[in-house]
Amino acid sequence: MHAVFDLLNGAKMTPQYAQASLEHGVEAVHITLNNYRGINPIPDMRHSLNQLADYRKHLNTLSDLVYPIEEFEDFAKAKAAGKLGIVMGYQNVPGVERDLGLLELFHGLGVRVIQTAHNIRNLYGDGCAEEANAGLSGLGRELIHVLNDLGIVIDLSHVGDQTALDILEISKDPVSVTHANCYTLCANARNKSDQVLDSLKKNGGVLGITYLPPLVILPSKGKPESSDVVAHIDYAVKRIGIEHVGLGSDFITDQPPERYQEFMRKPEVYGTWPWLYPINDLQQQQDMLSSLTEMGLANEEIDLIAHGNFMRLFKQVMS
After folding, report:
1. For the stretch 141-174, what's the b/e string if a residue is b when 16 or more beta carbons lie within 10 angstroms of its beta carbon?
2. Predicted confidence (pLDDT) per residue in 117-145, tens digit
3. Computed from CA positions of residues 246, 252, 254, 259, in that sequence, does the dihedral angle turn out positive or negative?
4. Per-residue pLDDT tens for 142-181?
5. Which of 47, 128, 132, 158 is the most exposed, fewest CB within 10 Å of its CB?
6. Of the candidates 186, 185, 184, 136, which has an alpha carbon nearest to the alpha carbon of residue 156?
């Protein structure tokens, strides 16, 4: 069984799911705060703080099973305690608006991943659904320096191509794509172009391959299979090297469909409900990882994809 660091897991974190994760090799997951109760692409300050408070309270009810990750050493502490490491993050900038100094407050409360834009345009830059593809704003450039200084991992999963390229050029730390795939194999606006992948390699970042169906194959081409996920892994490994490839499942186990109504407004990006995942549970994830030997990968190389590459990135950013 391969140890897994899942860079985006949207499943409902019940005691049963936390226990199942541990039993299936998952050592740590990144969860999204501004999507905790429902998808909110531009959270204001009240929403951002409420979601953070709610999730911290929720984690306290699971304290015998989970371990919040605030320092890099916490990953090892969680493993030693037999608990699931939980990395808290936002899929958009929490509602600090122009007061970037307030991000220190969120860092102090345990936030360790932040994305600059979630599909649409905000104060900091364009998301992937913006046709203008305008990139970072001046304020967005300041934001990147603030996140670097705080030791917060930057996420590019939902940003536009030019925004991603701008961030990769100016970030002094390696950058993550927590959950997206390769645009060359699936021409979905959420997926990453070869130009972005090449810049990610140069930056030292990591791409988290996701199982979200419309990002694996286009909805018009039918139901994706596990082999389609493997194809994205294979393409990324050959394009940018195995040390830049990881996992970001985007599992949604036990979540209600109402949570995804915001996404369903963009069928050209997200397809239609219900999503039929090619890898739909934790055992199937382990089965997929085992199948990577058929690509010619050694177990040590599979471990890098499943766990090691994102661990290296977090160590660099958080240390």
Report:
1. bebbebbbebbbbbbbbbbbbbbbbbbbeebebb
2. 999 899 999 999 999 999 999 999 999 99
3. positive
4. 999 999 999 999 999 999 999 999 999 999 999 999 999 9
5. 132
6. 136
Q: Are 251 and 11 in contact (CB under 8 A)?
A: yes
Token readout for 229 is: 């996920």
CATH code, 24: 3.20.20.140
Residues in the chain: 319
Q: Please tell me the distance from the alpha carbon of residue 68 to that of residue 87, in angstroms, as a whole number.
A: 6
Number of domains comprising the chain: 1
CA distance 196 to 162: 9
Both structure tokens of 151: 């030791």
Domain of 135 in residue numbering reads as 4-318
Residues with Cβ within 8 Å of residue 60, at least 6 apart in sequence: none
SS3 state of residue 190: coil
Cα–Cα distance between 73 and 206 in angstroms, integer?
Answer: 20
Side-chain-side CA neighbours of 280 within 13 Å: the count stands at 9
> Would you state the structure tokens that stand for residue 243, as one six-digit string?
């040390």
Q: From the CB of residue 63, how many other CB atoms can be counted at a distance below 10 Å?
A: 10
pTM of the predicted protein model: 0.95
CB 92 within 8 A of CB 41: yes
